[in-house]
TrEMBL record:
NADH:flavin oxidoreductase/NADH oxidase N-terminal domain: residues covered: 4-331
Position of the signal peptide: none
Superkingdom of this protein's organism: Bacteria
The protein's name: Alkene reductase
InterPro entries: Aldolase_TIM (IPR013785), OxRdtase_FMN_N (IPR001155), Oye-like (IPR045247)
Gene Ontology MF annotations: FMN binding; oxidoreductase activity
Naturally occurring in which organism (per UniProt): Salipaludibacillus neizhouensis
Length: 347
């Protein structure tokens, strides 16, 4: 069991020690200046040490305006960049690769977290619910002007450059789960009448181009999803069209590794008989990362059939920093308990 999954692989310029990816997980331990907690170094290092092939970090704010709750690290000040250098150095020493997930939450925030200014979004559509961690009602956002759009694209590119200066191996653009980029992609949150309303993936395309120009497109991964954290009933009305539309953006911009996010890898899309990853494989001939209640057996099967090339695990890797090692020894994995595993960075 789990033979392929645990084997090294070459994906583009990346040499991975296994096909196990650590999925991005917000932890909330950074200080008020967006500087990571010192334990973050060992938190990521031990997972690389025990054989995770690629670590995708927690969502990292690209600016103060991009932040959605407390404890989120940034990549927009020198001190933030300096602190990340210790993480990337140790992960590399342990044989791993580390990718910075670049995050802007858009409307899923409150002026309490964004530095006093109203959260921004494609349109003034307020989200239901409250911010994570410190509970604040989501504020009605200020619709983005063209200047806001240009500034945000530049912030993504600058954060990507900072990530490279901090020693990261690449970046993942967080275009999933109902956050800013995804807000442009949804008919509920994007009511614009300009070209950003007509072409729902234009903002994403411009960000990919800007980030690619700043660090090289071979170092850019994109995460996207049907599901939105704040809109549980949302679904793609025509998944075939939507998937082809988004994949065209990736073909056009030269992306070669994508990270489609599903809450449950084996579950078909709401309006389709296929799962998200199976539908993508129909139209995508490059590498893709599987995720969502993944088990080693599911991952093994999907990698063997070439549906995906890498398998990402979130909660299992919180409960089992040595997961790859345990699988090699056929030792059962520990169960994930949020109260235990979310309360500290180190066991
Ligand atoms: C504590 C926690 C924090 C998360 N934070 C993020 C995040 O910052 N960015 C993101 O794209 N996904 C985030 N996710 C979603 C995971 O990356 C992953 O897609 C999801 O948990 C499904 O994988 P799993 O079934 O292996 O846990 C988070 C998940 C958890 C459990």
């Amino acid at each position: 069991m789990a033979v392929e999954l645990l084997e090294p692989v070459q994906i583009g310029n990346y040499s991975l020690q296994s096909k196990v990816v650590m999925a991005p997980m917000t932890r909330g331990f950074a200080n008020d200046l967006g500087i990571i907690h010192p334990d973050t170094i060992n938190y990521y290092k031990i997972r690389a040490f025990y054989g995770v092939g690629m670590i995708i970090t927690e969502g990292i704010s690209i600016s103060k305006e991009a932040q959605g709750t407390v404890g989120i690290p940034g990549l927009y000040t020198l001190r933030q960049v300096e602190a990340w250098k210790d993480v990337t150095k140790e992960v590399h020493k342990a044989g791993g690769l580390i990718i910075a997930q670049l995050w802007h939450v858009g409307r899923l925030s409150h002026s309490y977290f964004t530095g006093g200014t109203k959260p921004i979004a494609p349109s003034a559509v307020q989200a239901n619910g409250q911010t994570h961690n410190i509970r604040m009602p989501y504020e009605t956002p200020r619709p983005m002007t063209i200047t806001d759009i240009e500034r945000t694209i530049a912030d993504f590119a600058a954060a990507a450059e900072n990530a490279m200066n901090a020693g990261f191996d690449g970046v993942e653009i967080h275009a999933a789960h109902g956050y800013l980029i995804d807000q442009f992609q949804s008919y509920i949150t994007n009511l614009r009448k300009d070209e950003y309303g007509q072409k729902k993936f234009l903002f994403l395309e411009q960000i990919i181009k800007a980030v690619g120009n700043s660090i090289g497109i071979d170092k850019v991964i994109v995460r996207f999803s049907e599901h939105k954290d704040d809109l549980p009933l949302y679904y793609w009305e025509n998944p075939e069209d939507t998937v082809q539309e988004i994949l065209n953006v990736f073909y056009k911009t030269g992306i070669s590794l994508i990270h489609p996010s599903s809450p449950s890898f084996k579950k078909p899309l709401t309006n389709h008989t296929l799962t998200l990853h199976a539908l993508i494989r129909k139209y995508w001939n490059k590498a893709s990362i599987g995720v969502g209640e993944m088990t080693p057996n599911i991952a093994e099967e999907a990698i063997s059939s070439s549906e995906i090339q890498l398998a990402a695990f979130a909660r299992p890797l919180l409960a089992n920093p040595d997961m790859v090692e345990l699988l090699k020894r056929s030792t059962p994995l520990k169960k994930y308990h949020p109260e235990t595993h979310l309360s500290t960075l180190l066991p």
